[in-house]
Amino acid sequence: MRFKAFSKKQLAALVWWCENSPQKNLDAIICDGAVRSGKTLCLSLSFVTWATAKFHDQNFALCGKTVKSLRRNVITPLLQCLNDLGFITDYKISQELITVSYGKYKNRFYLFGGKDNGSAALIQGVTLAGVLLDEVALMPRSFVEQALARCSVDGSKFWFSCNPEYPMHWFYTEWILKAKEKNAYYLHFIMDDNPAISPKIINRYKSQYSGAFYERYVLGKWVAAAGAVYPMFSQEKHVVKRAPVCGRHVISCDYGTRNPASFGLWGENNGVWYRIREYYYSGQESGQLKTDEEYATEVEKLAGKRPIEAVVVDPSAASFIECLKRRGKFTILPAKNDVVSGIRTVSAALKGGKLKFHESCVDLLREFSLYRFHENIANDAPVKENDHAMDDMRYFAAYAFTRAETGFAAQTLSRKMEG
Fold first, then answer.
1. Contact by Cβ (8 Å): 253, 316
2. Residue 66 burial by CB count (10 A; 0-12/13-18/19+): exposed, middle or buried?
3. Going by C-beta distance under 8 Å and a sequence separation of 6 or more, which residues neighbour residue 159?
4. pTM, whole model, 2 decimals?
5. Of 125, 195, 202, 338, which one has the fewest beta carbons inside 10 Å?
6. Burial classification of residue 11, based on how many CB atoms lie within 10 Å of its CB (0-12 exposed, 13-18 middle, 19 or more buried)
7. What is the pLDDT of residues 375-391, one digit of tens each?
8. What is the tens place of the pLDDT at every residue in 65-101?
């Protein structure tokens, strides 16, 4: 791993538990703030070095929204850094267990995913000396509280990291606002707290977000989403009279029977995706419902003679997906339906000029002006009206766009481990 000097705030997260630290008697640390602000690796490295310095032959937990995301975001860079520092690590993937040794001290670190309320059962029964919860704001409260309840060993501590969400989120109200009451050390990070991120990359991140998502992921604030979902959309910037010749084509489908069905044909040219044509039908307004077979025929008409890379379909439309598969003409994929994540992806693509729309796509263009967040600040859900073309666009964006995350580099902190 390439190393750079830690920032002052990263160093604070690394050594808060040490004997000469004024925070050593606190029970928890909370690191929140902007994306790419350097909080994840320094917190996970601090967690393992604390465990090794304070315990032997104990169990610990490393938790993410899913084990897959935990491996990607935390475990891979952490293991590389630990090995560079002289720790001996043994990762048994089949057991989701990492054994970490330094000198005569050895401990076990179990990996858990907290994606839904049922995940709480996965961590029941184990006795822990500490737990790290990465992206804790994305986990259900039942899982987090079950994980904390497992920490019954004397001297155990809690470690939290997250990006901000809406201001009525339970973790913000119960932990961040009550950090002193919870005997927790609270550190708020901004991008400048990560010395591995260059000004050029910081400016790129700033250009990807707008509105509430800019305040959350660039400024690190817990703010409510309000007003238009896509305030960055512009007729002048995003609507074209003629789409160019495209090399790749994808169709996205939001399925409806009485509610409108919305299908979009997308083409890619030089890194920009164009919505070339669309199909939009409301059974309720027309007074006549269409069958899955009729909708499948409309998908084929939308494709024409173009080679279609994939048809991405509303994952709840099981019968329609099966109908399309039986026809055998396209690769059919259930769409990713994480609404907030999809909105962020679309917002970044709009702001970066990666999405454009032919002027004939009148229903999608109409919905842009009507699609709004709830005024209630207790959630980030858009109003479930005028959202059918918005949904099929979101399904497409989740398929077409990926985000390359900048790696984090840090300088090794030499410290003699003492028993």
1. no
2. middle
3. 28, 29, 43, 46, 47, 130, 131, 132, 133
4. 0.67
5. 125
6. middle
7. 665 667 788 888 999 99
8. 999 999 999 999 999 999 999 999 999 999 999 999 9
